[in-house]
């Protein structure tokens, strides 16, 4: 039988807007209503740009209040009568909406759930609560959006940021020559420590000219660009013949409409992928989450959590992330 409280705390918004619309709300807790439901009591959840896009109305949200959070970790506290895959007490991490909440409900056959070990530590919950979305973005994109190969030049934007710092590590592990781009010397230093061979400060240097210098005039095989509007053109101009532009974010704004005829001059491939499109099937999720677990547990992939905020301070976390000043990952601690 479920012992889930009637109400719980969430971070969400009723109307779109700036940081002042972010509220800690007390709302009805999800309950087991189907025999295949499971309820997870959250411990940690990751902060992502996508929460800001919903808040600002860049992406539409059907639910009001809209509850923030797209990934989390916690403990299964209730299961429906027909559930066989999970039991009360299982430790899990997952990618799903509504993670900035004390409890979340998912169906048993939900694909993007990872079982954590029985003796998972607080640190495991913290890392896995924040690692899935950005790490799987980096992993799937360097495998499927552009398969990164040994010795090719790869450009990584926001290279000290969440996705960027993982892209730098994974592309370097594959033997690619990573050119990291960021806005400050400290961020570039961090990218170098993570494996970048070359660095460019886009605030003080001409990105296209530097890329030409580094690549002997050829350009890069692929540019992984999460920054969007402000850097789309320099990403495009930095590509080699048959190069690939993976444009996957809007940190500086949404990329304006693009004339496809421009692709033909260098036979360029242009993608605007989203991570969920690569981990939809159970086999895909298993494949990528197994690789990620191995990367994280072996320490090959360094996952830096730069700050942990209590749930009530999510608005500060959003401000910090969206200001562009942070490095690594920001995580929310859910009150128990
Ligand atoms: P980051 O930690 O990378 O933070 C964003 C970084 O972008 C900043 O640190 C800053 O780095 C750079 N930036 C450049 N211009 C701006 C600007 N005007 N405002 C703010 N930041 C700016 O964030 P995430 O790793 O969480 O996400 C990066 C992007 O990737 C987001 O747009 C996100 O939506 C997208 N994303 C897309 C996914 C998908 O499936 N398509 C999945 C996951 C993330 P610097 O100072 O070095 O320029």
Written account of the structure:
With 336 residues, the chain is α/β, with parallel strands linked by helices. 28% of the residues lie in helices and 27% in strands. β9, α3 and β10 form a beta-alpha-beta unit. The protein starts with 6 loop residues before the first strand and ends with a strand. Bound molecules: NADPH dihydro-nicotinamide-adenine-dinucleotide phosphate. NADPH dihydro-nicotinamide-adenine-dinucleotide phosphate binds next to α1, α2 and α3.
Any descriptors?
alpha/beta, 28% helix, seven-stranded mixed beta sheet, 336 residues, binds NADPH dihydro-nicotinamide-adenine-dinucleotide phosphate, globular, six-stranded parallel beta sheet
Category from helices, strands and their pairing:
alpha/beta
- Strand fraction: 25-35%
Distance between the termini: 20 Å
> What is the radius of gyration?
20 Å
Helix content: 25-40%
Task: Give start-end ranges of low-pLDDT stretches.
Answer: none
Can you summarize this structure?
By secondary structure, the protein is α/β, with parallel strands linked by helices. It has 8 helices and 16 strands. The chain has helices at residues 49-56, 122-145, 162-173, 185-193, 207-214, 232-237, 282-298, 314-323; strands at 7-13, 23-28, 37-46, 66-67, 71-79, 91-95, 103-107, 113-115, 153-156, 177-182, 198-201, 220-225, 239-247, 269-271, 305-310, 329-333.
Layout of strands and helices, then pairs:
Elements lengths: L6 E7 L9 E6 L8 E10 L2 H8 L9 E2 L3 E9 L11 E5 L7 E5 L5 E3 L6 H24 L7 E4 L5 H12 L3 E6 L2 H9 L4 E4 L5 H8 L5 E6 L6 H6 L1 E9 L21 E3 L10 H17 L6 E6 L3 H10 L5 E5 L3
Helix pairs in contact: 2-3
């Amino acid at each position: 039988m479920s012992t889930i409280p009637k109400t719980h705390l969430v971070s969400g918004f009723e109307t779109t807007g700036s940081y002042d619309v972010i509220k800690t709300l007390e709302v009805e807790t999800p309950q087991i209503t189907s025999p295949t439901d499971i309820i997870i009591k959250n411990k940690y959840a990751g902060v992502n740009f996508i929460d800001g896009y919903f808040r600002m109305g860049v992406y539409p949200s059907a639910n009001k209040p809209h509850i923030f959070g797209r990934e989390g970790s916690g403990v299964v506290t209730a299961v429906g009568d027909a559930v066989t895959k999970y039991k009360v007490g299982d430790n899990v991490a997952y990618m799903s909406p509504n993670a900035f909440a004390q409890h979340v409900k998912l169906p048993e056959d939900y694909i993007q759930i990872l079982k954590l070990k029985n003796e998972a530590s607080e640190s495991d919950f913290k890392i896995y609560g924040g690692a899935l979305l950005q790490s799987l973005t980096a992993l799937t994109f360097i495998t499927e959006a552009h398969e990164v190969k040994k010795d090719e030049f790869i450009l990584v934007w926001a290279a000290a940021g969440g996705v960027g710092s993982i892209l730098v590590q994974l592309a370097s592990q594959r033997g690619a020559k990573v050119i990291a781009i960021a806005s400050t010397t400290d961020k570039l230093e961090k990218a170098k420590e993570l494996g970048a061979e070359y660095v460019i400060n886009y605030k003080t240097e001409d990105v296209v000219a530097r890329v030409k210098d580094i690549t002997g005039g050829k350009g890069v095989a692929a540019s992984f660009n999460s920054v969007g509007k402000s850097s789309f053109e320099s990403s495009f101009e930095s590509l080699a013949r048959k190069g690939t532009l993976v444009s996957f974010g809007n940190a500086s704004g949404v990329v304006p409409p693009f004339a496809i005829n421009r692709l033909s001059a260098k036979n360029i491939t242009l993608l605007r992928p989203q991570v969920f499109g690569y981990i939809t099937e159970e086999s895909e999720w298993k494949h990528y989450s197994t690789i990620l677990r191995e990367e994280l547990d072996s320490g090959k992939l360094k996952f830096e959590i730069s700050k942990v905020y209590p749930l009530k301070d999510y608005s500060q976390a959003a401000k910090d992330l969206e200001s562009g000043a942070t490095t690594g990952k920001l995580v929310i601690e859910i009150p128990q």
